[in-house]
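Supplementary Methods, section 5.1.

A reviewer requested that the exact input to the structure prediction be made available. We therefore reproduce it here, unchanged from the version used in the analyses.
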Amino acid sequence: MLNFSPTLVLNADYQPLSYYPLSLWSWQDSVKAVFLNRVNIVAEYDQVINSPTFSLKLPSVIALKEYISAKKDPAFTRFNVFLRDKCTCQYCGIKKKIKDLTFDHIIPRSHGGKTNWLNVVSACRSCNFKKGNKSLKNSGLRLKVQPHVPSEAALKNNGRLFPPNFLHETWVDFLYWDTELVKN
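The structure derived from this sequence is encoded token-by-token as follows.
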């Protein structure tokens, strides 16, 4: 069961590095970080790993010893656009899984539209197809929310809306979701 023993990684201020995706390391990476003295162990699994010279309870929560500052401006990526838009089509307002979303240029590139925070939104496939290469006005569609440049904090807060399928009980004090924890 070692392969499914992820470690929650906290910054030096004991806040998760990210919520979506949740900041998790493999058990191998967390053990390596412990031995390199880069992290503090905050909580442990019941599992023990052994070598000829040591035994160690597998870390379930670790905190970095050095604080990693959040970037001032988040990277413009497809994933971050979906996160900014809370995985919701900005035309019909329906929440979708990431695999069912596309990224749409409000002003099409063929009409001089730029690929940036202010001209790109999340769209479901049917709305994106309906809009096609038309301007917003000519498509008959309307935006639910005007696109904007999000802050790192806003993306982190939006990530809290998407709890993962697995949450270990030792993580509860460091995560802030209104969801029941699933025990394995």
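The beta strands are 7-10, 24-25, 39-50, 55-64, 101-105, 120-124. These observations are discussed further in the main text.
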